[in-house]
Automatic annotation (TrEMBL):
Main location: nucleus
UniProt key word Isomerase: yes
Composition bias, Basic and acidic residues: 357-367, 380-438
Domain PPIase cyclophilin-type: from-to ranges: 1-171
PANTHER family assigned to the protein according to its UniProt record, in alphabetical order: PEPTIDYL-PROLYL CIS-TRANS ISOMERASE-LIKE 4 (PTHR45843:SF1)
Function in brief: PPIases accelerate the folding of proteins. It catalyzes the cis-trans isomerization of proline imidic peptide bonds in oligopeptides.
GO CC terms, sorted: nucleus
Region spans: Disordered: 94-114, 339-468
One Pfam family here: Pro_isomerase
Species whose genome carries this gene: Choiromyces venosus 120613-1
Organism ancestry: Eukaryota, Fungi, Dikarya, Ascomycota, Pezizomycotina
Protein name: Peptidyl-prolyl cis-trans isomerase
Known EC number: 5.2.1.8
Amino acid sequence: MSVLLELGETGDIVIDLLVDYAPRACENFLKLCKMKYYNFSPIYSVQKDFSFQTGDPIGPDSPESDGGSSIWGLLEGPSKRLFPPEFHPKLKHTERGTVSMATAPGRDPDERVSGSQFIITTGDELDYLDGKAAIFGKVVEGFDTLEKINNAFCDGKGRPLKDIRIRHTIILEDPFDDPDGLAEPPQSPVPSKAQLATVRIGEDEEIKEDDDPEAAEKLRREREARAQALTLEMVGDLPFADVKPPENILFVCKLNPVTQDEDLHLIFSRFGTILSCEVIRDKRTGDSLQYAFIEFEDQKACEQAYFKMQGVLIDDHRIHVDFSQSVSKLSDTWRSATNAKRQNAANARGFGGSNQLEKRRQYREGNKSQGSSGNTGYLFDKEDVRRPAETSRSKRDDRGPKSDRHRDGGRERERERDRGRERGSERDGGRSRRERSLSSHGRRDRGRDSWRRQRSRSPRRHHDRDRY
């Protein structure tokens, strides 16, 4: 029957319970651990090389503390808050790591009672505690944790300045049945406000004896600011956590709504060269938000403008100037540079991670596809089009331009037709249309008879006729 106590960064402690010698005290301790009653209980009453005490969920320093209660007091009411533990004569505080219930005198002078608080010894041969603390277990693992608690820096009441608390209790073996009404929580409960109010210095904070309260508060604020900056960096609102606003940009507020960028540029240009001057305006309406940012080329010019322009009257408004705390320009520059690097890397890899795919893509261009019927509207890479274009051009050069050939041939045919018409007109002379028609019919008949005679003389035709 064992219980594991987790003490956070201090370490863990494993306690073996002496069920045969102190069954009632062991049952009370086990059931309180099962209900997570000891969670976030502080370590107090630390006495070097003697013992330390715990078990009060809030701590004895809090006015809201009642000193703790037994498991029966939690289930049956305040009348059962305390119980009489067992004092076995064979159990003595002879070795370090002895675990015993803290007791107090009861109504009977010969009886002592306990609640939830228990003691763990950090020294040997402590017979002073015999008969005053009821032993019910012993530490079997975690003696280095006991040594850390024994050497902790404490105040006059034995309370460690750096919090040491029971974070979790884990039951390794429980031989007792649960009493009626006991409900084990599904998870460890959240610390109450009363418990959080007793925190002095967190476990993750370092103690320095020479630090004054102002220095400690400044250190706490710096730590909190760094944590917030890291959060903004993770969500992308800051380019990096240690970013600082530029020292050459001046913030101007309390402006008159009628003041324009050119007015501020003219007024502040006497201190030095101005790179940009912008009055911030509403995106929807375009109205001035009555503050502006002025970026100087030189930091000294910005500082001089800060000292000289405080409270100056501009357009019946006394302005207020301060150094800019905005890092938006740096953020935009960082984002642009980062995006450019990503784009260059993507272009270097090509389409789909391959340069070959980049060469072979063919897209239809919507604007050019609506032209002439001969234009397909496809866009090809220059290297793919150059070779066939040069080949066709060289062939055209050898034969001459196609358009010139067609044009010359057409003119020659027209001249031949004109010469034919002239010869025909000379041959016909002054004959009438009817005579010319009869003459043309006669020519056709003579041509048909000539073709028949030629066919009848051909021996191949006679052979074919005899065959078929």
